[in-house]
Amino acid sequence: MADLDLPLRQGFAPDAGISQALPDDIPITLTINGERRELHVRPWTTLLDLLREDLSLYGTKKGCDHGQCGSCTVLIDGQRMNSCLALAVTKDGCEVTTIEGLAAPDGTLHPMQEAFIEHDAFQCGYCTPGQICSAVGLLKEGHARTPEEIREMMSGNICRCGAYTNIVDAIEDVMAKEGAK
Amino acid sequence: MDQSPMFETPLFETHVGSPRNRVDGRLKVTGAAPYAAEFTAPDLAYGYVVSGAIAKGKITNIDTSAAMAVPGVVQVFTHQNRPRTAWRSGAYQDEVAPPGKPFRPLYDEHIVYSGQPVALVVAEDFEIARYAASLVRVTYEAEKHQTDVAKVLGEAYVPPKKRSGITPPPKPKGDSEAAFGASPVKVESEYRIAVEHHNPMEMHATTVVWEGGGRITVHDKIQGAQNSQSYITHVFGLSNDDVRVISPFVGGAFGSGLRPQYQLFLAVMAALELKRSVRVTLTRDQMFTMGYRPDGVQNVALGANPDARLQSIRHDLIAGTSTFEDYQEATVNWSVMLYRCDNATATQKLVKIDTYTPADMRAPGAPTGLFAMESAMDELSYKLGIDPVQLRLRNYSEVDEANGKKLTSKELRAAYQIGAERFGWARRNPVPRSMKEGRELIGWGMATGAWEAQMARTAARAVLTADGRLEVASATADIGTGTYTILTQIGADALGLPMEKVTARIGDSSLPKSPVEGGSWTAASAGTAVRLACDTVRQQLFKYARGMDNSPIANADLAQVAFQGERIALISDPSRFVTIADAMRAGGVDRIEAEETAVPDKLVQARYSSYTHSAVFVEVRVDEELGQVRVTRLVDAVAAGKIINPKTARSQILGGVVFGISMALHEESMPDHNLGRFMNHNLAEYHVPVNADIHDIDVIFVEEQDELASPIGVKGLGEIGIVGTAAAIANAVFHATGKRIRELPITIDKVIGTKETA
Ligand code: FES
Ligand code: FES
């Protein structure tokens, strides 16, 4: 997609007679999956809604909108974060990686994506982008070493389908392969 | 090689029966699989639902002026300005509706449950709709409501109309009352579970794409695209040609997507009225304003002789339903069906409360009823001084004890044995509180699980094209169950193709007719339908291959060839073969298409019952001071006929088991009966297991041949994993602590507050 430098949503001219005038858009710059984007966002728009509704990056999921499920996990400057809890304007200048940005440009999957498929670490797939981003963040943090620690530190990502044991297996697998390198 | 009785020709199984990765895996791990709220359209408007604040009464006024004044708001729909829809409530009845009058959103001023949608705000974007919704002012005239089942037990009634597809409680056998009185050893207790809401990770959503000229394409979160389609056509007076429902991916549902939810109605209504595309997504709070797993008051009484043979079984249930529908699920039947006993009675009654109608939730009825029954069996085992597994074996039955019918198969005995062995059950010290490590008490418990193995009439189409690709299609769904993958495996083996050359299409109302995806019947039904359609294609293809000039298989009949490696080869001499491409060329066609319908065998149904069974073994560790329970080890030995894909099948059971652990220890929709509302309507307060709650789960598939349950030998797996799990955990908690907890979930307060009885 080309650089965007326009209001993403139709602007609504505040009507003098109405008290419900909306706040102005605020310009921000985000690097999303390696691409620099100049954006105009409303102060009330979350990073999650910006990704999904304005940029059509629907890979990042909404499971609660309250920071309670982890479905919306993305990597912000390499750190895993719930994008529903971040107002987009507060992330001005940040680098955002979503599930769409994990595979190589030639389509080669990230090792964590491969491992999730191999271990059947999902069923409906709805929590999966969040789980995978979270797992990639977890590995980068470098704190989890045992399955017990993986379980604990992956507990911000709910999987209602109950794929937990397979998720842990997938992460352990990637960890072992990275350790072996 | 497996020869199924219904199919004349052998099938060489390359993929069926072997672990295969999900064919939709790549789409799911890259974020490319589109769910209902992720289809988009130019000029898409966003709807936000305003939820009602009282449990019962009337809306006296809705002031939408402030909301309408927000720039970007397109319309606010209420019962006062909604467009005309069907007048008869019958038009709102969907494929799986229980008897009664379905809820009609925005129909009139009456409020029948808390959280009922009272308005839909449609705006140019999501945040504006959400903000404007907060400005809608509703005033009510409240009436006295009742949401507490326990308060109205005296009003219990036997539902006058049985819900279609649900087996009602069996006829009484013998005289359970007299036999109970005469039994030297007996147990009798009351059991409760908590109301549970399905809470799939994807919130219910519908995107309606306005195609112009009154035609719409609907992306709905639904377990059966054709159920949504017929609901829309009936309610809005449209024809099937006007409405196409496409829902290729469903972010979990567990039953919440069987019936169309109210966002479907609202989104379609708004789109038709505004003549533009509209999306309505519910919030997590609103996921608590729809169907739920009903609580009820259950009583189980068991009588036995000192030799541990059951003399009397009695299981009574009074469950809640809404004021407008008589929801029914099979809850008490299992207690009669499972064990050999001459005197057995099971009854099921309803009481009306002011909530939404309960809904099928993963194995509806079975984990509820078997929690009570299998807890009672455990209690009885202690009274008799017999091992819990032995008690079940002592009363083992080879028939359906509820109706005397034969069973299509039952490898439950093997499941007990294999499960016990894997778990190390023989090392169990039967004395409660006898196993301890540090500050943790260790308990080992077990229970039996069962679920009906069903088949439902389902059609499928198979299309083979000259490039050697096969497409199989049916309007069923994949809610994480692996339907795409198993249909691909079946299609690939039927025509001897690699899986990469087979595409499964589902989740589209324009595809061959299928019921909702549920009840664990999809693999057996859609799987058989695909196999049948492929068989017809096979026969056609074989005809072309044999009729070829100098055909190397000219004298063979269908039973003498194998479809393997994209060839049709003689079984006796595989060097004599015709490739699929050559066969089609010889036939002068570039596609072979067939549609077939799988129908359950009436004769089999009349003579047999068919169930999946499981034996669940659990280890819990209980911190006595903190009252915290952890399930540290679980073995589920499942006998469910043929397993098409051991990998996705195992995941199905894992998911069911996690649901069972959740039912036992976590999940609880907490009502405030003063307000008539579930209060913990968010994922921070409505607890479901997270990764740290789940430890070792060992799934075993017990070898089970079944040639009658379905033509492809499949019995289904979606439900069985949850059934029995909660009971096994409660039994393990008793073994650990000596405390018999008869109310789920087993939370800290109950562990600390319950007296030891052993
Ligand atoms: S959607 Fe962000 S944590 Fe649930
Ligand atoms: S795969 Fe369905 S919620 Fe995790």
From TrEMBL, chain A:
- Domain (2Fe-2S ferredoxin-type) spans 26-102
Keywords annotated in UniProt? 2Fe-2S, Iron, Iron-sulfur, Metal-binding, Oxidoreductase
Entry-linked SUPFAM superfamilies: 2Fe-2S ferredoxin-like, CO dehydrogenase ISP C-domain like
Q: Name one Pfam family in it.
A: Fer2
**InterPro entries for the chain:** 2Fe-2S-bd, 2Fe-2S-bd_dom_sf, 2Fe-2S_ferredoxin-like_sf, 2Fe-2S_ferredoxin-type, 2Fe2S_fd_BS, Aldehyde_Oxdr_Iron-Sulfur, Beta-grasp_dom_sf
Recorded GO molecular functions are: 2 iron, 2 sulfur cluster binding; metal ion binding; oxidoreductase activity, acting on the aldehyde or oxo group of donors
Domain of life, per the record?
Bacteria
> Record keywords: Metal-binding included?
yes
PROSITE patterns recorded: 2FE2S_FER_1, 2FE2S_FER_2
Protein name (Swiss-Prot/TrEMBL): Xanthine dehydrogenase YagT iron-sulfur-binding subunit
Q: Which organism is it from?
A: Muricoccus pecuniae
